[in-house]
């Protein structure tokens, strides 16, 4: 995925399915570098956040 599309998803009110390594995640924040994001697994408490590369995300 690219950062432009990710910005659109973050500003959308729709529930867009985004996956990281085949697992659905919520995108919490796009970092200022535009290449990394903070995500957490759907259904898992917010305390378990992970920083990943935007390129590793896939829109389903």
UniProtKB/TrEMBL annotation:
User: Tell me, what is an example of a GO biological process annotation in this record?
Assistant: sporulation resulting in formation of a cellular spore
Q: What is its main location?
A: other
User: Which is a Gene Ontology cellular component entry for this protein?
Assistant: endospore-forming forespore
State the superkingdom. Answer: Bacteria
Ordered alphabetically, the record's keywords are: Sporulation
Localization = Spore core
**Where are the coiled-coil regions?**
none
As for family, the record states:
Belongs to the SspH family.
- Output this protein's name: Small, acid-soluble spore protein, H family
> What organism does the record attribute this protein to?
Cytobacillus horneckiae
């Amino acid at each position: 995925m690219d950062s432009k599309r990710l910005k659109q998803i973050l500003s959308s009110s729709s529930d867009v399915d985004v996956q990281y390594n085949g697992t659905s995640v919520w995108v919490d924040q796009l970092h200022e570098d535009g290449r990394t994001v903070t995500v957490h697994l759907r259904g898992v408490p917010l305390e378990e956040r992970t920083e990943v590369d935007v390129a590793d995300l896939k829109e389903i």
